[in-house]
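Design review, sub-item: ligand-bound model
Attendees: FS, YL, KQ
YL presented the inputs for the 5-phosphoarabinonic acid complex:
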Amino acid sequence: MNLPIRFNAQNVLKSAVGEHGLDAAELDTKAALDALIGFRARVDSGEVGFPNLPLDQNTAKSVDKFASDLRGDVESVLLLGIGGSALGPSALDMAIRGPHPVQVDQKRCPRLYVMDNIDPGFVSAFLENLNAKRTAVCVIAKSGGTAETLSTFMIVHEWLVKAVGGKKAAQRIVAVTDERKGDLLEIAKAEKYKTFFIPADVGGRFSVLSPVGLLPAALCGLDIKKLLHGAHDANTASWSRTLETNPAMQSALVHHALDTKRGKTIEIVFAYSAYLWGPAFWYRQLWAESLGKRINRKGEVVHTGQTPVPALGVTDQHSQVQLYVEGPNDKMFTFWAVEKPRTDLKIPETKQFLQYDSCAYLAGKKLSSLFHAERMATEAALTEAGRPNCRWMLPRVDEYYIGAFFQLLEFQTAFCGELYGINAFDQPGVELAKKITNGLMGRKGYEDYAQKFGPKKLQVS
Ligand code: PA5
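KQ shared the predicted structure:
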């Protein structure tokens, strides 16, 4: 199928940006095919499962049913989770309903609050501002034991029980976790919480189309069938062995070549839509945690990975673009653009302002024309300055295209992992700090970490 989300890499070529660009021949089609075959084998062997998520209609149906039964009873959904267990749901909500200050559908559906930080002031502010009697709590942790999530869970549980009693609280808490193991699973069983499962072969940052993202989305009134439909179509495109019809592979090749052959170690993700600002932060984790690796699959030290940096068009034109155009040429730019805005406005032809040059040329034009022109101008300025840039173009931001886009970006990441020859699905670099935290907090079994990294007097009581 021909997915109407387009990837355009014209401005990464030498013909556009000179010596910092790539020769078309450097986009290695043989390596692309090997990467696709290598990744396919991981999926077929059951090692990696995110491509299977759009096929799981049964889970989607039961999530939808549960959400529609609960939705009318609550005005807020409080999500407790972190990393892949928070960024996906938040990104879906912001993409479809918009950034919070201007979010739509507040009356019809609950608002989503994501508690993905344990700053005590931040946590207290949630509890002070939410009405416990009208709040549903989604506690999400694949491992079932993440310190940040379990600590906020205990605080929120106490808050909810105080307000509505233990029985009602248990009906208002829903857990999303691994089917087979983890303390959250045991707690959910003991307390009789409704539970949805994350497949064992789907890691946190690849779990947005599992109940991790689908449940909060359904509670907030999003059409999760359309999300999965889009993702399904993205699967079809991403398994294509023809590079021209496989945008995820084209993008993976471009990113990998610019990093490894031209030293573009930073990727600026320039979202030209306020609705794609949340997704840019979801992608930041996906790209960083998947590809930032010390060793490759052969055990050699490689230190791979680009540093992803979200930027917001047009806002950051007046904040970052000076650096981007004239600072170190160590970055590549990926524009995320949208053909059709959610709505459009005409700039009025207000008579008393037409005498001013700064107003006259704008009067009567669509605001979307200015928005598009500013994006094109930024692309042109970067190209002129010899800065390689590429573009994803979405027809619209709706559930179908967001499902498709997220899935394309996950495929892009998986393909890039194969091109680097690293494991894109683990995160050993996150582990040490977690173990030291456990040691400092006095967790049984982590005494060695407390001993090595924290003098006794620093231990937290
Ligand atoms: O991508 C990942 O695996 C991580 O970022 C996790 O999502 C994050 O550490 C949270 O883990 P958990 O869902 O087990 O609480």
